[in-house]
Design brief:
12 strands, 11 helices, five-stranded antiparallel beta sheet, alpha+beta, single chain
C-alpha cells in the first residue's frame, strides 16, 4: 500500500488545509483587524493550547496555530509551544462515554429512544449505524469526486433526514437533562468559564499556571507574560455541538461541518467600574527533587465557586465583563441571557459574565470522575423537563 494514505481517524491533507486556513482567519481577525494579539511573538505563553489524545485533534490545533502564527510571525529564538493533553480516562475535551460509566448509560438510553422513535422506517441502530453512514457521506463530500459513494447516498432529502436523526440521537440529551449536560460536557464548560473568571479576577487561573514557567517558576511567561490572552483547543464535532446544546444554543442546527469552530470571547466594558486586579501571591512549592521553588498561588480563587454563593466583593470582580459565542463566525444567543439585566443593553449576544457563569454552574460537576460513578441505578430520563440555557 502506498505510504501517503491517511490512517483511520487521522487528519487528511484537506483537513490540514482547512485548519491552516482557520488559523489564518483568526490571525486576520484578532491580529490584523482588532489588534488584540501581537503581530510577532517570542513564545506562546500567552496562548493556552490543548488537544484531545486523538492524533487528528493534535494536528488540528497545530495547523491552526501555524496559520495564526507562521514562522514569519515568530522570533528566531521561539521555543516549542506547550500543548496540554490529558490521559484518556481524565479527558473532558469531548463527551467521554468510554470513561464515564453513568454518561455511558445515559447516552445509550437517549440513542435507543431515537432508534425506537424512527423504527422501522429508518434503521438508526443498523450496522454500520446510521450516524456512521452520515460520517462517511460527509467525508466523501469533503474530499472530491474520487472518493464518492453511489449517488443514492447523496439524495438531499435523505441527507436531511439522516442529519436530523443523527443530531437528535447524539445531542438531544443535552437539551433535556441536567445530568446529561453535567457528565457529557459540564467539566469542559466549567473549565472554560473558570479561565474567563480567572482572567477577570487576575488570579492566574486563566490557564497561565498550566502553560507558563521557566525551570519550575510558574505564573509568568518566558517573555514576561502575566496572563493568557487566547486559548485554542483541538477537539471534535461532538464537543462543539454538546457545548452549544448544553447552553440552549444549538436548536435547529445541523451536524457541525468539517473544521467547524466555536469562539467563546470575553469582553470588558472600558467604561465600567471594575475591581482592580490583585497580583497573585507567591507560595513555596516542593519539586520532585526536594528543592523549593516559587509558584504562583491565587489567594482567593472563585472560578469554581457557584455565583449564588458569591460575596458582594466577589460579584464585583465580574462586573463589566461580557461573554459572546460565535459558531462558525456567527453569533449565537444563550436563552437565559435574553432576560433583562443579563446582557449588554441593545445586544443579547453579549451575556454578562455573571449570568453566563450562573448558567454554567448548574451543570458544572464538582468532581467529574466521582459524578461518573453516581446514580447508576437511577432512571436515565429526568422526571420533568430540564431545559438548557437557563
Amino acid at each position: 500500500m502506498h505510504g501517503c494514505l491517511s490512517q483511520l481517524g487521522e487528519l487528511t491533507d484537506k483537513g490540514r488545509e482547512t485548519t491552516l486556513a482557520l488559523g489564518e482567519r483568526l490571525r486576520h481577525l484578532y491580529v490584523d483587524q482588532l489588534g488584540f494579539m501581537p503581530k510577532i511573538i517570542s513564545d506562546a505563553d500567552m496562548i493556552y493550547l490543548r488537544a484531545t489524545p486523538m492524533a487528528r485533534a493534535l494536528d488540528s490545533v497545530q495547523q491552526t496555530f501555524i496559520g495564526m502564527y507562521p514562522l514569519s510571525a515568530r522570533t528566531a529564538s521561539f521555543p516549542p509551544p506547550t500543548i496540554i493533553t490529558r490521559a484518556p480516562a481524565d479527558e473532558t475535551l469531548f463527551p467521554n462515554e468510554s470513561n464515564c460509566q453513568r454518561f455511558s448509560q445515559l447516552s445509550r438510553a437517549f440513542a435507543q429512544r431515537t432508534a425506537d422513535r424512527y423504527s422501522p422506517r429508518v434503521a438508526v441502530d443498523s450496522h454500520p449505524r446510521l450516524s456512521g453512514i452520515m460520517d462517511t457521506v460527509n467525508s466523501t463530500l469533503a474530499h472530491g469526486p474520487k472518493t464518492r459513494l453511489p449517488s443514492a447516498f447523496y439524495d438531499p432529502k435523505g441527507r436531511d433526514v439522516i442529519e436530523k436523526i443523527g443530531t437528535e440521537e447524539w445531542f438531544s440529551g443535552y437539551t433535556e437533562s441536567e445530568e446529561y449536560r453535567k457528565l457529557g460536557i459540564g467539566a469542559l464548560v466549567g473549565d472554560i468559564v473558570g479561565r474567563m473568571v480567572g482572567s477577570a479576577e487576575g488570579s492566574g487561573s486563566d490557564g497561565l499556571l498550566e502553560v507558563a514557567g521557566v525551570e519550575g517558576d510558574l505564573g509568568k511567561g518566558r517573555g514576561g507574560e502575566g496572563s493568557i490572552k487566547l486559548a485554542l483547543s483541538g477537539c471534535h464535532d461532538t464537543t462543539l455541538a454538546a457545548t452549544l446544546s448544553s447552553l440552549g444554543a444549538f436548536e435547529g442546527e445541523k451536524w457541525p461541518p468539517y473544521t467547524s469552530h466555536l469562539a467563546i470571547e470575553l469582553f470588558k466594558d472600558p467604561w465600567a467600574k471594575t475591581e482592580p486586579k490583585k497580583p497573585a501571591e507567591a507560595a513555596p512549592r516542593q519539586s520532585f527533587l526536594g528543592s523549593s521553588r516559587k509558584s504562583t498561588k491565587p489567594s482567593a480563587i472563585i472560578i469554581r465557586k457557584p455565583v449564588q454563593n458569591f460575596t458582594a466583593e466577589e460579584k464585583a470582580k465580574l462586573q463589566g465583563y461580557y461573554v459572546r459565542m460565535r459558531y462558525n463566525d456567527r453569533p449565537v444567543i444563550v436563552p437565559g441571557c435574553k432576560l433583562p439585566g443579563k446582557h449588554l443593553e441593545g445586544d443579547e449576544s453579549f451575556c454578562t459574565l455573571e449570568a453566563f457563569k450562573a448558567i454554567a454552574d448548574k451543570y458544572t460537576p464538582r468532581i467529574w470522575t466521582e459524578a461518573c460513578t453516581q446514580g447508576l441505578d437511577e432512571p436515565a430520563f429526568p422526571s420533568s423537563p430540564e431545559p438548557a440555557g437557563y
